[in-house]
Structures are given as structure tokens and as C-alpha cells.
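Record now logged underneath.
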Amino acid sequence: MVTLHQFRCFLATVEHGSFTAAATALGYAQPSISEQVRLLEQHLDAALFRRVGRGLVPTEEARALVPHAAAALAAVDEAGRAVASVRRVLTGTVRFGLFRTSRFYLGAELVGDVLDRHPDVRVELVGQNSAEVRALLRKGDLEAALIALPVEDEGLAVNPVMRDELVYLSTDPDRLRRPVTPADLAAAPLVLPDISWRDADTTRRQLALSVQTAGLSLRPRVEVEDTETALDVAAAGYADTITWRAVLHRLGDRMPATLGWVPLRPRLYETFAIVHRPDAQLSAASRVVVDLAAARMRALDTAARAVPSRRLPRSPVR
């Protein structure tokens, strides 16, 4: 998994032109800097520097990465600034809505962000699917939430915080030779999550619409509730699946080697937003949660874009 520390070491090396100078600037040992850059190169499967004389020159890949790495670090700094001004002790209970797969986006890290700063706040993360969370917001059971767009209810204030690309995963390298078309999706043996929300889930609706535009229909071989089970079934070779690049990023080295992935054609994206009722005055504690969640999602948006757009399976098909 790409880390902020790797981005920090990478940017220092770009700025100072050598591992030694970067180590001096950051206050680390030179081998530590070079190792972090090596790990970043390994994850991205790209050389980021070439040696010229006694210095290092960024490659084209490195120059393309610079603005994204800088934005990720800036987003984390933004999270700190968002709460730096909150000096009083916050109390009470915050009910914040999330979809099931949000554990790959926020989850425990958001709870930690809140409790590290405000240990007297009680945190409740509520929801299984964006459709359910929207209903809870309309009823007033939640102050704010992170959901997938679109929002068909004009009575909600919407703040988009991340755009994540969907990718196709398989253990069969023959199905990963090129981007996957709607016709390919219709013919594929798929395992899809969110069976209880199959008619309302935004991802499944996007996939179904894409296939319908080709005059076909989407008929999964297997349907399950959670993304983890779908990935396990796919990794075992029983079906292919669809997931998000942010999930690949968060799994990192824990991503099964049996699974490779390619983009869809046309590419499909999920946009995530923090929403709340515009007539509701957010409590101070809820405002902190909203700001921290937004900062983390924006940082993850940058990190997920660094995930390679395709990878072939590293072991034989079952």
C-alpha cells in the first residue's frame, strides 16, 4: 500500500536531487529514504528516478506523480487545520451515515481521528447501503452521511469529496487482455455484492444501465452481501467481480495474487459525497466528523489514482 511517508520521501528526493540530501532535509538516515522510494516504485511498478552523476533525476512517471503526492499530503494537513481551531471539549453522540464498503474508505481511521481529538464524544457509524442512509437522513435519524451519488432528493445539501473508478477483476488472464465492454459484462460469470440492495445500489444500477445500452442484461452467477466475500469468490476462480480502485489501494499487498484487473470500456466511476439536510444545524461534534471525513476522502482520492490501471494474475487459473 502507498503511504504518506513514501510520498513525503519521494517529494523530498525530487526537490533535493538525491537520497542523501532528502534524508538531511527530513532528518532521517539515507537508507530509510531510499527504501521508502523503492517500496513506492515497487507498488507503482515504475522507476521514479534515474541516476545522473552523483544525483537523481525524476523520470516522466515521477513528474506525473508529483502533483498527486503533494495533494495527498496537503489534504492530510487540511484535516489537521480543520480541527486545530476546535479547542473546547466536545461531548455528545455523533451519528454519521456510511455505506458498507466504507471500511475501505474511512471506517476505523475516522473513529480514531475523532476520538484522538475529542475522547468525550460518542461515535455511531450507521448504515449498510447508500439508499438506506439517504432514507435515514430524510427521516432525521442522521445529521450527515457519506454516500454514493446520485442523490435524487433535492432536499439534501451535497458536497462531493471523491471520484473512484470501477475495475473488472478476474483470475483468468484471457479476460483481462483488454478493457471490458458492456457485452463482455453481460457474458461474464460475475459475483456481485449488495444483494439486499440490488435494485437501489448505485454501482449495480450503473453496471445494469451500461449493459442495457448494448441491448443486453446483467445476470450475475453469484450474489452476496459484502465486497470481501465477492473478492474471495473471485480470487478462488469461481466468478469475476467488479470493485473500486480505492479498495485495491487499501488492500495493497493483501490483494490476492490470483486476481488481476482491467478498466471498463467505457470507464465507470462512483462519486462519493458528504450530504446533510440543508435546514439542519450541524452540531459542533458533527461538523468535526464531517471535516475529518472530507479530508480523508480527498487524500484517498489522490492515493487511489496512483493504483495501476491494470494487472494480470500472478498465478495460474484455477
About this structure: The chain has three domains: 4-83, 89-161+272-305, 163-269. Residues 89-161+272-305 form a domain with the D-Maltodextrin-Binding Protein; domain 2 fold (CATH 3.40.190.10). The mean pLDDT is 91.
